[in-house]
Amino acid sequence: MDHWIDRFLHYVSVEKGLSSNTLSAYFQDLQKFHAFTKKNQLEIGPSAQNPNERRKSSLEETYVHGAPIEPDQIQRKEIVLFLSELKAASLSPASVTRILSTLRNFFNFLSAEGAVRHDPLAHLHAPRKALRLPKVLLLSQVEALLNHPKGEAPTARRDDAMIELLYATGLRVSELIHLPLGGVDLEGGYLITRGKGAKERIVPIGQCALEKLKVYLGSVRPLLLKGKSAHTLFVNRSGKAMSRQAFWKQLKIYARKAGIQKSVTPHMLRHSFASHLLERGADLRSVQMMLGHADISTTQIYTHVARERLKKIHEASHPRG
Questions:
Q1: By CB atoms within 10 Å of each CB, which of 77, 128, 186, 309 scores lowest?
Q2: What is the domain range of residue 11?
């Protein structure tokens, strides 16, 4: 199994160009499944060697610990037991669905490589996921957040440009911190980024973000670099690329200063970007292109957000609401 997991991860990395975050998730999911198969491998008895001999019933089947297992030995029942264990561990339906998707991709790869003769996941359905609406900020909350950070310190002015750009473009935080210096066209008013699967997309920036970017590039970035060079647009005080953790930490600080009670994440600004665009009449296909969603059904979740907000406004404002 270790051999095939390594080959699968190499395949999806080289052939499909998946991001490091996706590769990490695949690795963790497959290691979890591998640990389960080693812990609960079905003992191969005489019935498995002689097809004429009666198969053991489920009550007669015994499990041994630590024995290696080949992918072709895995049956549907092992998958079902694994999913049951995940459910017993109180994993959310969304997490179980993600792990099941990883296993489907893995066994499709094994089948293509001739490592398995059957698909143990055939006709196995993922648990139904409850519709969870993305958490978004009100426009007033976004405006309060964009009024922070304050001051003339280079880091404050850098953070100001980063938060403004994040809300203006709906970038993922990983896309923001890895945005190359040459990825922004100040004259054209757009940026080019690479999202999931290394897919390239063009996103308009907007006037407010453009103005803050010009200030950052003209007088702030050189102060942070201190004569050094960097490939990424945004850098820290050491002249190196910003980390996700550092930006997230700063965002939480500014959100508290802005009086926002809820826990604010970079992805919440992405959700707010999409939701606010749709509320103001943007068409779904355009929002899909700007977000970099492969499937428009992923973008459609924001129409539910807009409808829920309209319902609340109606209930609060209508005389008979």
A1: 128
A2: 2-112
